Amino acid sequence: MKGAAMLVRTESLPQTSERHMTVRVHAPIGVAVVLWHGDPQEADGHHLVEWTVDDDIAWGQNAQPASVAEPGLRQAGDQVVIRGLLQLTTDGAAHLQLGSWPVLFDLASPVPRDRDKTWVEITVGADSVGLYPYET
What is the pTM of this model? Predict the structure, then answer.
């Protein structure tokens, strides 16, 4: 699901697939390799972007309490670990607050209500995380 715009620096990487372009994103909260959904000719540079994460939150599988109470982003092999303040919505979804930027998630299974407004880490496949240039 989509989140709010964040200013990042991206650098294009050697492409291993014709399907999706990957970039290394340098965000205020960390660095990871993710999919680029903008113009390939503009992949290098500073961009205002929206984040999307196609994987849903499955508590106890790809989401758990965080050991550090601050937003973060890091690469872990072929996965991306996103740390933020979890906020459950009344319509069965959630958003992860990464500093000033929320990233929206669907829930694959219910998250315990006592995890609302707590720091969590969500681990997702790097190929499920994408950046879209923000258009005003």
Answer: 0.91
